[in-house]
């Protein structure tokens, strides 16, 4: 039995045996997990046992969708890659926009599970019911854009959607990504390395089927209304114009633009990394993911200078940060060039940028020198060096081979106190925020399932001071403290509530930019929409949705617990807890993480000593 | 002047909301592959080009149809299909200048835009105004083509100049 919105099928490909299998979606999953991250967490927990080497055939990689993937609901074209992470050895997930997820639904599957390991390089090709493994030997070594074009040509169909790894994934670079539509990246945690270890070059999908919801007319009407809501939201319109570049100026103003490997949050060269500078000079077109009326993607083109002729989307704010301020680089064309290399070779721009920042700080402090780097002067702000070392990482050449392991492993190999400059949590490099100027993100970075993550629980309402929203969500009694970014007070409350909502966002699956910032939709909107899509009335109740969100989150925690993760791992780099912010509006601030953790575990129903779900919590969520 | 669908390539973001809405309205489900219009995407260039039945001044689909199942209204220029007459020869599918006539292989019928009887869903849902319904002047069409031409020329110029290597 399948409900509205779902295809009711899971497709499995066993690369070792070379065969495909279609299974029914377990119906009990629907009520307990809704879809997306929820389904993926259940499957990964059940099928990838503790201590599995992420790069071994025993690891699995899943692509999951949700009940509204492929419908007209705004920004519902996103999909998630899940696996035991190549970079961290714990829970790994990476969401991506573009057009891949809807195509999987149209081909007739809610989920794809990739298992085993192929002897030779292959493409996984899914055309509705036609399933095949195609020899990828001739394509091994190709960049993602080349192999995407090659697959479309092979099938003689420009609408084939391709998820591809580049040379970095083949080389098992720990933070290798999967690229869809040339420039949209399932970037974080090393999904590209997992595919590379399985000898999979691309997953190519084409579907001619449909997604049918339970109440078509009502859903259609509501979805159109929801699009109007996006189109009329003033902040969403700004986002559509400037993309995530809008953040650079905001971050600089509040003193939270990570600079010089997170040493400070103030960057003198911020202006040339801002939307107002970039758009009029370099942007040639606005683009969107499937079903998105906001359209934050920008195609950009460099007309002159050393990187003349670079035509590429992005980078997002995170990329501007990782190859701009974080390295002391105040040159947009360099960040676009870096983004192009990351897209074509298939690497996560956040992790690779941060790992280079780590190396630059080691270089500054004499821990490494030219004899280590192969003569590349890793000085702050040196654009040529940044691009050069990036290329070396992509091909694991020379010193690039060490950095291709990510900052945690690289610092362990280099030693000599370099660990202090590896800015990561659980092996994942810290994204473009700073707990010192925004306490709640400090807690997010420390506790998120995949490591230093800004996407699972970043609260924006506190930082931007939306009083009305804060009062509605968390209660007037918590004002004004909850809106003060410099205190620990009530921050766990904000993080927990936000995180539960984002869990639902990640089951549907909809884009960050329709929920998180700007806050266009929240739980009640999903509660109104989901029964129309699925025909399941229980989803119309926000408390039920909260419980489903909690269940997903706890299941991810259990996955990590099995790998040995406890409170001792929910830590931040000392930079955020012991080095006061040196300048800017947040001057002197540090994070008091332990008090945040105490509050968070209490609200989550986790043991304060171990940081793990208590028996009662597991029973309440039917997870025993 | 009668109304037409007109498109502005420079505004289109490639979101395919129009395809979704077209199938939702005409088929009662979400199935872009049988939408009556098509977004052709060039991810490498950052271009998205909507293909719609405008319709043509002199419509090849009408001219080629051997049984006069495809007809054109002399005033509105609107082309429409009389399904009862159609013998499924697929001549129109091959000849449509915009590639927007489809054969539905499941239900064995020709699928073609009927301008939603004068109330086009696609134009209403398009968030950017890339699809517009109303009278159009030839001049604006030419200007738009010129803009794309300049863009492509510039890309070609730099491609020739540089190595093109990432
Ligand atoms: S807001 Fe941006 S990332 Fe999100 S769906 Fe739209 S285009 Fe994609
Ligand atoms: S269906 Fe095609 S050929 Fe016929 S009028 Fe429309 S665009 Fe022209
Ligand atoms: S006018 Fe109507 S039938 Fe024609 S493409 Fe637009 S939505 Fe589809
Ligand atoms: S809805 Fe408008 S912007 Fe989106 S793909 Fe269609 S024509 Fe382009």
Ordered list of secondary-structure elements with their pairings:
The complex is a heterodimer of chains A (624) and B (166).
Chain A: E1 9-14, E2 19-24, H1 27-33, H2 36-47, E3 61-64, E4 79-84, E5 91-96, H3 100-107, E6 111-115, E7 122-127, E8 130-135, H4 144-154, E9 161-164, H5 167-170, E10 178-180, E11 184-186, H6 191-197, E12 200-206, H7 216-232, H8 234-242, H9 246-253, H10 275-282, E13 283-287, E14 297-301, E15 311-313, H11 317-323, H12 332-345, H13 349-364, H14 370-373, H15 383-394, H16 400-403, H17 406-414, E16 424-425, E17 428-429, H18 439-447, H19 461-464, H20 467-474, H21 491-508, H22 523-534, H23 542-562, H24 574-578, H25 593-604, H26 615-620
Chain B: E1 4-7, H1 17-27, E2 38-42, E3 47-51, H2 60-64, E4 70-72, E5 79-81, H3 91-95, E6 102-104, E7 109-111, H4 121-125, E8 131-134, H5 138-161
Antiparallel strand pairs in B: 1-8, 2-3, 4-5, 6-7
CATH homology superfamily name of the largest domain in chain A: Aldehyde ferredoxin oxidoreductase, N-terminal domain
Q: How many domains would you count in the coordinates of chain A? A: 3
Basic shape of chain A = globular
The protein's oligomeric status is: heterodimer
Termini separation of chain B: 50 Å
- Main sheet of chain B? 2 strands, antiparallel
Return the CATH class of the largest domain in chain B. Answer: Alpha Beta
Classification by helices and strands of chain A? alpha+beta
Give the cofactors and ligands. iron/sulfur cluster
- Gyration radius of chain B, rounded: 17 Å
Query: Fraction of residues of chain B in helices?
Result: 25-40%
Radius of gyration of chain A: 23 Å
Please provide the ordered H/E string of secondary-structure elements of chain B.
EHEEHEEHEEHEH
Q: Beta-strand level of the residues of chain A, as a percent range?
A: 5-15%
Beta fraction of the residues of chain B? 15-25%
| Major β-sheet strand ordering of chain A | 2-1-6-3-4-5
Highest CATH level, the class of the largest domain in chain A: Alpha Beta
């Amino acid at each position: 039995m399948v409900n509205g919105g779902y295809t009711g099928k899971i497709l499995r490909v066993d690369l070792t045996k070379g065969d495909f299998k279609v299974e029914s979606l377990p119906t009990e999953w629907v009520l307990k997990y809704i879809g997306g991250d929820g389904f993926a967490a259940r499957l990964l927990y059940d099928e990838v046992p503790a201590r599995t080497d992420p790069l071994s055939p025993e690891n699995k990689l899943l692509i999951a969708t949700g009940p509204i993937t492929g419908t007209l609901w705004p920004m519902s074209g996103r999909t998630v890659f899940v696996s035991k992470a190549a970079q961290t050895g714990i829970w790994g997930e990476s969401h991506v926009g573009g057009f891949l997820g809807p195509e999987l639904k149209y081909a007739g599957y809610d989920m794809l599970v990739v298992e085993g390991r192929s002897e030779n390089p292959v493409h996984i090709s899914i055309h509705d019911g036609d399933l095949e493994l195609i020899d990828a030997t001739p394509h091994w070594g190709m960049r993602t854009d080349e192999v995407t074009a090659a697959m479309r040509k092979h099938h003689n169909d420009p609408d084939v959607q391709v998820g591809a790894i580049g040379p970095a994934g083949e080389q098992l670079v720990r933070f290798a990504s999967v690229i869809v539509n040339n420039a949209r990246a399932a970037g974080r945690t090393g999904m590209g390395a997992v595919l590379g270890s399985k000898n999979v070059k691309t997953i190519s999908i084409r579907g001619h089927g449909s997604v049918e919801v339970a109440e078509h007319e009502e859903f259609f009407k509501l979805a159109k209304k929801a699009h109007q809501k996006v189109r009329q939201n003033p902040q969403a319109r700004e986002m559509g114009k400037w993309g995530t570049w809008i953040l650079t100026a905001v971050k600089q103003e509040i003193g939270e633009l990570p600079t010089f490997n997170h040493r400070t949050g103030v960057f003198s060269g911020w202006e040339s990394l801002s939307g107002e500078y970039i758009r009029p000079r370099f942007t040639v077109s606005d683009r969107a993911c499937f079903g998105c009326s906001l359209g934050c993607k920008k195609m950009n083109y460099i007309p002159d200078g050393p990187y003349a002729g670079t035509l590429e989307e992005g980078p997002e704010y995170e990329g501007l940060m990782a190859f701009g301020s974080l390295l002391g680089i105040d040159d947009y064309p360099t960040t676009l060039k870096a983004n192009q290399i990351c897209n074509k070779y298939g690497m996560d721009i956040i992790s690779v940028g941060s790992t280079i920042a780590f190396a630059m700080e080691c270089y500054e402090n004499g821990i490494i020198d030219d004899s280590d780097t192969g003569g590349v002067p890793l000085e702050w702000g040196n654009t040529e060096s940044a691009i050069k070392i990036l290329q070396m990482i992509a091909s694991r050449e020379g010193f690039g081979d060490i950095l291709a392991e990510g900052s945690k492993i690289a610092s362990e190999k280099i030693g000599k106190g370099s660990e202090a400059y590896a800015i990561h949590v659980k092996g994942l490099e810290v994204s473009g925020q700073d707990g010192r100027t925004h306490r709640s993100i400090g807690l997010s970075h420390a506790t998120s399932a995949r490591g230093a993550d800004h996407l699972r629980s970043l609260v924006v309402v506190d930082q931007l001071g939306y009083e009305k929203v804060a009062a509605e969500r968390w209660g007037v009694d918590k004002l004004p403290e909850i809106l003060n970014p410099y205190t620990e007070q009530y921050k766990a409350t904000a993080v927990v509530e936000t995180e539960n909502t984002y869990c639902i966002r990640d089951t549907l699956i909809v884009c960050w930019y329709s929920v998180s910032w700007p806050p266009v939709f929240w739980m009640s909107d999903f509660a109104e929409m989901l029964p129309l899509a699925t025909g399941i009335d229980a989803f119309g109740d926000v408390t039920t949705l909260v419980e489903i969100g909690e269940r997903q989150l706890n299941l991810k925690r259990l996955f990590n617990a099995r790998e040995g993760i406890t409170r001792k791992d929910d830590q931040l780099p000392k930079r955020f807890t012991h080095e006061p912010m040196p300048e800017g509006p947040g001057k002197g601030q540090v994070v008091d993480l332990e008090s945040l953790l105490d509050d968070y575990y209490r609200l989550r129903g986790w043991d304060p000593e171990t940081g793990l779900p208590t028996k009662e919590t597991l029973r309440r969520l039917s997870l025993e | 002047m009668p109304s037409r669908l007109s498109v502005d390539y420079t505004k289109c973001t490639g979101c395919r909301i129009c395809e979704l809405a077209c199938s939702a309205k005409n088929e009662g489900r979400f199935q872009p592959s049988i939408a009556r219009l098509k977004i052709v995407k060039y991810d490498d260039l950052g271009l998205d080009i909507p293909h719609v039945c405008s319709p043509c001044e002199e419509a090849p689909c009408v001219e080629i149809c051997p049984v006069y199942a495809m007809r054109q209204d002399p005033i509105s220029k609107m082309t429409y299909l009389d399904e009862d007459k159609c013998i499924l020869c697929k001549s129109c599918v091959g000849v449509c200048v915009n590639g927007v006539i489809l054969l539905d292989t499941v239900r064995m019928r020709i699928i073609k835009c009927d301008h939603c009887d004068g109330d086009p869903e696609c134009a209403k849902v398009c968030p950017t105004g890339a699809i517009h319904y109303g009278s159009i002047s030839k001049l604006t069409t030419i200007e738009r083509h010129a803009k794309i031409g300049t863009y492509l020329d510039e890309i070609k110029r730099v491609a020739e100049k540089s190595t093109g290597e990432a």
